[in-house]
Amino acid sequence: MARPAHALIDLDAIRHNYAQAKALSPNSKAIAIIKANAYGHGAVMVGKALSAQADAFGVACLEEALELRESGIENPILLLEGIFEPEELQDVDQHRLMIAVATYRQLQWLLEAKLEHPVDVFLKMDSGMHRLGFAPEETEAVYQQLAQCKQINSVVLMTHFARADEADTSFTEQQVSCFDSAVAHIPAPCALSNSAGILSDAKANQAYIRPGIMLYGATPMGTDHASDALLKPAMSLRSAIFSIRDLPVGERIGYGGRFVCDRPTRVGVVAMGYADGYPRHAVDGTPVWVNGHMSRIIGKVSMDMLTVDLTDLPHIKEGDPVELWGEHVSANLVADHSATIAYTLFTGVTRRVPLRYVNE
Ligand SMILES: *Cc1c(COP(=O)(O)O)cnc(C)c1O
Q: Which letter does DSSP use for residue 120 in this model?
């Protein structure tokens, strides 16, 4: 018997969520964002599962794109951060990758390169996030340089939203109008929305959308948002109860004795800890599903295990299955109890946790 901690990945759920993104923006192509090992879900498996459907894939960097190409994935792939040194352009050329251009250094490398195949470029403009991209007043001149360069096949204009997950859409609308007016005279298609932009009430006209977190079934709009119902959770983080004990009133559980038993307490120990990627900051009361019933964390999460309250679940026995997040407990809810977001939970699952795929 192996340690029971594992993550079940439902590839049908990811295909469903991709189709939902397309349905919300029916006139756009959708670049499925599978950077960071597909947010912890396994980039090659997710890439293969979506290869018949996906208009393109988006990854952070060359290394992530090469992993997909080596596994036989032939869809267009966009490097969202572009290149970090000019030598990477040889692989970009050879593997026919699309690249973001967001800095003058990247622009210069590209204009000076000798490429065999003209490259497709996503020109990034800073419309208010103030992290990457050309200023609105610089964008048209950069576009002209790219448009005149024989090594460039096509240019898409791109920007990124900083606050599209908020109920108040005013900042996103401000970004859209900043972008629209800066590119008004540029004859090129546009790419604006991340998942939050796709799910938000703020609408943008665009040839390409860039869904990420929503593919994995977690809405970035918060636990109560209607978009939760559109999406199917793709990852179910699972383990099992491997020890049970009874403690009298007043005893404390785990490191630091954070939880104090206020009644005779039946404690279940689960084989799942922060070294598996479960958040150490989960507070007492964080929901956990135990074989058909809701339970809660009691005591601090340890490296290899955590403790749950089984006092009201007397029939639960050693070996019973546990879900930490997934179908029964949303990752957003666990994130809310751990001062984080579903993105860090998914990307934080460690290599000690085997990924098992269903509905390949
Ligand atoms: C990661 C990323 C996305 C996807 O964002 P989500 O919030 O996960 O949908 C979209 N665009 C860019 C440029 C990104 O880096």
A: E
Superfamily name and number for 235-358: Lyase, Ornithine Decarboxylase; Chain A, domain 1 (2.40.37.10)
* Ligand 1, residues at Cβ distance < 6 Å: 33, 35, 80, 160, 194-196, 210-213, 220
Domain(s) labelled CATH 3.20.20.10 in the chain stretch across 11-220
Residue limits of CATH 2.40.37.10 in the chain: 235-358
Ligand 1 mean position, distance from CA 210 (Å): 6
pLDDT tops 80 at residue 148: yes
Fold adopted by 11-220: TIM Barrel (3.20.20)
* Residues labelled as active-site residues: 35, 255
User: With bands split at pLDDT 50, 70 and 90, how would you rate the model's confidence at 268?
Assistant: very high
131 is in an annotated binding site: yes
User: 94-128: per-residue pLDDT in tens?
Assistant: 999 999 999 999 999 999 999 999 999 999 999 99
Neighbours of 19 (CB within 10 A): 12
CB 129 within 8 A of CB 180: no
Q: Which atom of ligand 1 lies at the shortest distance from residue 33's CA?
A: 4
Cα 31 to ligand 1 centroid, rounded to whole Å: 10
Do the beta carbons of residue 196 and residue 211 sit within 8 Å?
no
Q: pLDDT for 48-70, tens place per residue?
A: 999 999 999 999 999 999 999 99
Q: Give distance in angstroms: CA of 201 to centre of ligand 1.
A: 18
Sign of the Cα pseudo-torsion (118, 65, 88, 211, in order):
positive
